[in-house]
Amino acid sequence: MNTRLPDIVLFDLDGTLIDSVPDIATAVNAMRTSFGMPEVPVARVRSWVGRGLSTLMHRALTDDDDGVADPGDHEESIRVFRGHYRRCCAQHTSVFDGGEDMLSWLAASPIKVAIVTNKPTSFAAQIVKSLGIDRHLDGLLGAESHRPLKPDPSPLREAVDHLGGGSAWMVGDTRFDRDAAIAAGIPFIGVQLEGDQGRNIADIVDSDEPVFSSLRDLHDWLRVRLD
Questions:
Q1: Same domain for 50 and 151?
Q2: Are the C-beta atoms of 186 and 170 separated by less than 8 Å?
């Protein structure tokens, strides 16, 4: 990839800038309890996230990564999960180490920053505000009924257009982020901050696509290119 810094950097949210799984697991287990199902470990929930709320509920109801739940149960699970998650979504969620400094530095640079996430917009906005990182952002695009989810490239293109166009990079932790970036014609940067969990981004990137194990390392890499 061309390492000259772009006009815009797009970030995924969960697993890239924040560790939200503890709170997601709380809401998932509350939902499962309401269906008479046993709770599952946080590590199991961690392996289920990344494809949006609908897929998460299918997996949580079936205990299967490729499972498809009964339509009525699926609809109810989303309703129940949303109710619990709205109350707990910022209790134990945290910004990964170095993330606050990196976003603050980017906000002071000529580079625009947006989050593009498969998390529902209302939750994403509530969380970034609670964490105080909303002040560093120029935009946030989350899941809406009219908007396809990554790996569809449309949200990335929408974010770039919203910020006035120009060159962009996508930073993410899953193949869905990478596939969306490739389809949008945007260079991809990987981060691997939560361990493997069956989706080690370093195993799927090309040799010219960097992968970082901390946001501090990513920040240093970006800073060298701006300076």
A1: no
A2: yes
**Which domain-ending residue is among 88, 105, 132?**
88
Residues involved in catalysis: 12
If you average pLDDT over residues 20-48, what whole number do you get?
96
Task: Identify the residue with better confidence: 3 or 55.
Answer: 55
Domain boundary among 59, 88, 117: 88
Give the count of domains, the chain: 2
CA 173: distance to chain centroid?
Answer: 8
Measured CA to CA, the distance from residue 11 to residue 215 in angstroms comes to 12
For residue 184, what are the CA distances in angstroms to 50, 96, 128, 170, 203? 19, 27, 25, 10, 21
Q: Against a cut of 0.70, is the pTM above it? A: yes
Q: Are 94 and 57 in contact (CB under 8 A)?
A: no
Confidence label for 199 from pLDDT (cuts 50, 70 and 90): low
